[in-house]
Design goal:
heterodimer; A: TIM Barrel; 2 domains; 15 helices; 23 strands; B: alpha+beta
Chain lengths: 501, 380
């Protein structure tokens, strides 16, 4: 069948610069560039280009430019090129359209409608270069009060397990198999170096990474891949994954081609078989079932680790979160509409879930109304782009954030949304050994550590500007936020006032 | 009747911002003294205020009614008064009622009616609540539900006197020269907006806890949300009210001693905690983990008082002033040393306390008079 799909990108190769070195041919995993020996010329199959820019960055003579194909259909706001092309694809394949990364649609990004405060005159701002500025955060269940023996001033209260973060930014769940071992190594080393946590995702933990257990969140998800006693024992936190912002209500599917020998050993499934994570956890059909799994994991780890429960941000997140806290979750993870993934049905990614800002605000408010906010920490994820987003999330009520997409961008990702193809030219979201070595874990860890350092320094600047020298004084302090360009209802849900008021 | 606005936060700012003069004086031997010196001292810091609020807390002034809750209530209308008095009769045995004596003063215009009531709780009404919790609940009920009435003092054998004006004018208006107490705190206010509401002046009171405060608490937003979880309603939208409720929660309800409370409101830095011996480290770490939302961040000095105790505390990086003086068994706390020197030129000791370190005067641990004056020092 002749495809009606047009090329999405145009590749311009400057003949005066191109030296026919074939770097682009070797770097491209989508079979775009090829060498015509007869003419001694490098040419392109533009229709294959996904716009990942690997060739552009690696071309030694800067001969390449990749541009969007303008596709000048007649203007139509309803029938945009993307809509037309999706229909073309389905009429040619008859399948569910798959994609990678998070929701790329134009839904409101509330971070961009929130502004932070600073001190002037009545209270001094604090210079983080000259004064202490504290980002230390402890995740875990806190009691309502502390009891002290008055005569000896000794502590009577014993706290549930707490996890210390030197900075309130963690790496989100990305499974081994979806991403390569080198990505896992980079994340684990960076987390250990920066005093924070990284997350295994649902694919188990490669034995080589057990040494980073103290900085590892081990995920237990619906497929139970890679879950065994040692896995639970080495981790610092155990996270039950109920849902994911990129595909709420949908399970996971790691195609058999990605299940290499190493992945198979780590996931504990036969080599080359598809790894299917069911949509629900089949032992959790209700909140009391969740409580059983939470306590089963607490029992299994002798009450030494906080248990996190992760859900996708959906319409009734507040009520669900309240139930999760009552079911014994020590950490609640909310993953918003813009959270990324290695593969998801496009229709789900583009249409299901709610923005994390709204979910966070309503969950924090609800838990406070019920007087149980201190019983669990709140961690959010889904589209955090910079330290400004982090500061706003903390002011809305989060204890910490997870970053996934941002971390991958640090490793080279350009959001071409081809994660589900297994062909990632940047070697991130693939298990092809020729590609995975494109991520050097030493360099990857350095890039990620640099990112965390930069954001942490900026967070300190933001705090200092507000005249605050400890992150806990920003947490849930919504008076440090003002909304701009929002309706009364949006302001009410976010719990912030309009800028200028 | 009176054209007074009972809105403290007139422009609905996040919180009322003010800078101030503070003064506290306590005879730790329990000896009563008149407020004459305190008034002179706070008047000496006149320029730290702007005439938009002044007030005093006095402890030990009602020995004849010492076992009864002494409610001091401002009224903007007789209707408000009638409503509150009917409410009080329902909930309490009213032992004694009188209008608080005042003297016409040119500087004080348009004052509210101020009455005081000595009350005993009707125990059959408490439904198992502690008496103090019952009283707190009734105070909040009057302050949030009754228009034109405001309870600004509700402890036993203590009273708050406050209003719009310079502190020395308020003292004259309420005839403070006629009272004696063993502990006085005083406040001169410099708010950045212009409320005309007497209830917005300091000290803030709940039961016999009073707070005078100089500063702006940048963590107010979360401090307030945290306290709301425990049933406190911040009706005044001032950061000072948050300090009063935080102290009430931590010291009265959670039973924590002042040293611990200081470690919550102005905690040591994490890196200091990491260097502590394990017992202290464990306490300080737990306190920050559990009570992080009550860390008072931003510049502040507070003088907190309750029956038998006066506490001075600054924020942990000491962005607002506090000077301590000692003469015999008397402890002085002041924004400026000059105010102490004015009324007591020959202090035994004077020093500026370290940020976050509480200075405590207590009847239980009276100061022992010293012979020789020493300048400097690091604590009592």
């Amino acid at each position: 069948m002749k495809t009606y799909l047009p090329s999405r990108f145009i590749i311009e190769r400057d003949p005066s610069r191109c030296i026919q070195c074939k770097v682009c041919v070797n770097q491209c995993t989508f079979d775009v560039h090829y060498y015509d020996a007869e003419d001694d010329e490098v040419r392109s199959h533009e229709e294959n280009c996904v716009g990942c820019h690997r060739c552009v960055i690696f071309c030694p003579t800067n001969a390449l430019t990749v541009r969007r194909n303008p596709l000048d259909y007649r203007e139509n706001y309803n029938w945009r090129p993307e809509v037309i092309e999706d229909i073309i694809k389905q009429s040619e394949t008859g399948g569910v359209l798959l994609t990678g990364m998070g929701n790329d649609k134009g839904y409101p990004i509330y971070w961009d409608h929130l502004l932070l405060n600073a001190s002037q005159v009545t209270n001094p701002s604090i210079d983080p270069l000259r004064e202490p500025m504290e980002l230390t955060t402890y995740l875990g269940q806190k009691p309502d009060r502390v009891e002290i023996e008055p005569s000896s001033l000794s502590l009577k209260t014993q706290l549930a397990p707490q996890v210390k973060l030197d900075t309130p930014i963690m790496f989100a769940a990305m499974s081994y198999g979806a991403v390569s071992i080198n990505v896992h190594k980079s994340l684990a080393r960076a987390a250990a170096g920066a005093g924070t946590l990284w997350n295994t995702g649902e694919g188990g933990l490669h034995p080589e990474l057990y040494k980073y257990g103290n900085n590892t969140v081990a995920q237990v998800a619906s497929g139970r891949f890679g879950v065994h006693p040692e896995y639970l024992d080495v981790a610092r936190v155990i996270e039950i994954k109920i849902g994911q912002g990129a595909k709420p209500g949908i399970g996971g599917h790691l195609p058999g081609e990605k299940v290499s020998a190493e992945v198979s050993a780590t996931r504990m499934i036969p080599e080359g078989t598809d790894a299917l994570s069911p949509a629900p956890q089949h032992d959790i059909y209700s909140i009391e079932d969740l409580a059983q799994l939470v306590y089963a994991l607490k029992e299994a780890t002798n009450y030494t680790k906080p248990i996190a429960v992760k859900i996708a941000a959906v319409h009734n997140s507040a009520a669900i979160a309240s139930g999760m806290v009552r079911a014994g979750a020590d950490i609640i993870v909310l993953d918003g509409l813009r959270g990324g993934t290695g593969a998801t049905p496009k229709i789900i990614r583009d249409n299901v879930g709610i923005p994390i800002e709204l979910a966070l605000a309503s969950v924090d408010t609800r838990l406070r109304q019920e007087g149980i906010r201190n019983q669990a920490s709140i961690v959010i994820s889904g589209g955090i782009r910079n330290s400004g987003d982090v500061a706003k999330a903390i002011a809305l009520g989060a204890d910490a954030v997870y970053i996934g997409t941002a971390a991958l961008v640090a490793l080279g990702c350009t959001l071409c949304q081809q994660c589900h193809t297994g062909k990632c030219a940047w070697g991130i979201c693939t298990s092809n050994p020729a590609l995975t070595k494109r991520v050097n874990p030493d360099i990857g860890a350095r890039r990620l550590t640099n990112l965390l350092r930069g954001w942490s320094l900026e967070l300190k600047d933001i705090l200092g500007g507000m005249g605050i020298n400890a992150i806990e004084s920003l947490r849930g302090n919504r008076l440090q936020l003002r909304g701009i360009g929002l309706t009364d209802t949006e302001l009410e849900i976010l719990g912030v006032k309009m800028a200028g008021s | 009747m009176r054209e007074l606005n009972n809105i403290n936060n007139f422009y609905h700012d996040d919180k009322v911002i003010d800078a101030c003069s503070l003064f506290g004086m306590m005879d730790t031997s329990g000896k009563q003294f008149s407020g004459e010196g305190v008034v002179r001292a706070i008047a000496n810091m006149h320029i730290r205020g702007n005439g938009l609020g002044g007030g005093f807390a006095v402890y030990g002034l009602y020995p004849e009614y010492a076992e009864f809750y002494a409610f001091h209530i401002m009224y903007l209308s007789h209707e408000g008064q009638a409503q509150v008095e009917a409410f009080l009769k329902q909930r309490f045995y009213v032992i004694h009622v009188e209008e608080v004596p005042t003297k016409p003063t040119p500087a004080i215009s348009n004052p509210p009616l101020v009455w005081r009531y000595f009350l005993e709780v009707k125990t059959e009404e408490t439904k198992g609540q502690s008496l103090d919790d019952y009283v707190v609940e009734k105070v909040i009920e009057i302050n949030t539900k009754v228009k034109d009435a405001f309870v600004f003092s509700s402890g036993k054998n203590m009273a708050v006197f406050k209003g719009v004006g310079y502190p020395e004018e308020i003292a004259e208006y309420f005839c403070l020269d006629e009272y004696t107490g063993y502990l006085w705190t005083a406040h001169g206010r410099f708010p950045t907006n212009t409320p005309g509401w007497w209830g917005g002046a300091h000290p803030f009171d709940i039961l016999d806890w009073t707070v005078v405060h100089n500063g702006e608490i940048s963590s107010y937003g979360i401090n307030r949300r945290y306290l709301e979880q425990f049933g406190y309603q911040c009706t005044m939208q001032t950061d000072t009210e948050v300090v009063a409720y935080a102290v009430d929660l931590l010291m009265r309800k959670h039973g924590l001693p002042i040293e611990i409370v200081a470690d919550i409101m102005a905690p040591p830095l994490w890196e200091q905690i990491e260097r502590m011996p394990s017992k202290e480290q464990n306490i300080c770490r737990t306190l920050r983990q559990v009570y992080g939302s009550l860390l008072l961040n931003g510049p502040f000095t507070v003088i907190i008082a309750h029956q038998g105790e006066m506490i001075g505390l600054t924020d942990r990086i000491r962005l607002r002033p506090l000077t301590v003086g000692i003469k015999g068994s008397v402890l002085y706390l002041s924004s400026e040393e000059s105010a102490i020197r004015l009324i007591c030129p020959d202090l035994d000791r004077t020093w500026i306390p370290v940020g976050g370190e509480p200075v405590v005067g207590s009847l239980e641990k009276p100061l022992i008079p010293q012979e020789v004056a020493i300048a400097g020092g690091d604590g009592i």
